[in-house]
C-alpha cells in the first residue's frame, strides 16, 4: 500500500485531527446549527451520516443525496478550510459524494467487512484524489481491515486512513463495541505512515466515556478522533446515547493531554 502521511492531506494542521458532527444529517437546520457551532469551537472537519447503515430495518436510514445539498449550503457560511466528511457504502454513494465535492469519504464497519462492497467502492474511486478513511470491520480481523484498505489503495488512492471503532461482541461490557488497542497498534507498526483515527463514540455507545477513550487514543499516539456531536443529543434520530453537544466536544478536546514526541 502506498500511503501519504497526514501532513500532505490538506485536511488537518493540528494533532489530533478532530472530525466531528452528527451521526446522521436529519434536517438542514439540525446539520447547519451543529456544524456552525463546531466550526465556532475550532473544528475543521465536519462529519455527517447521509446514508445510514442501520442494524435493523424500520429505523431512520438517512436523508440521502439531499443532505449533500445541505452540506454545500453550509460551505457558504464557513471558512474555506472547513472540510466535510460523509460515509459511503456503495459505488453510487461514492459517485454522488464526489459530484457534491465532499472532501473526505469514510467507509463504515458494515462495509469494510465485505470484500465485494470494498471492491465496488474502490472501483468507483479509480482516478480520483480524495482522502478515504476505512473503519475496522465489525469483527477483529486485522487481515480483513488491511484488505479493505488495500482495495482502496489498488484504485490509486494514496490518502488512506484507518479508523478504530471497536468490535462487535455478544458479551456485555461497558463498551458498545470492544476496542482492541493492540490490534490497532499492530496496524500502526506494520504501516507507520497510515493515519490512525479513533472513533470513541462507536466504541463507547455512551457519551460519558468519550473523554476517557479519547485520552487513551492520544496516549497511544493516534493521529485523530472522530466524535459524534449533535445540537440536541437526547433527541437524535440515531445513536442518541453516544453523541455530545458541540460545547462538550470542545471541552473534551481542550481537556486532552497530547503527548509530545519526546515525552
Ligand atoms: C457512523 O459513523 O455513524 C457509523 C454508522 O459507524 P460504524 O460503521 O462504526 O458503525
Ligand atoms: Mn453513529
From TrEMBL:
<keyword id="KW-0808">Transferase</keyword>
<dbReference type="GO" id="GO:0046417">
    <property type="term" value="P:chorismate metabolic process"/>
</dbReference>
<keyword id="KW-0175">Coiled coil</keyword>
<dbReference type="GO" id="GO:0016740">
    <property type="term" value="F:transferase activity"/>
</dbReference>
<protein>
    <recommendedName>
        <fullName>chorismate mutase</fullName>
        <ecNumber>5.4.99.5</ecNumber>
    </recommendedName>
</protein>
<dbReference type="GO" id="GO:0004106">
    <property type="term" value="F:chorismate mutase activity"/>
</dbReference>
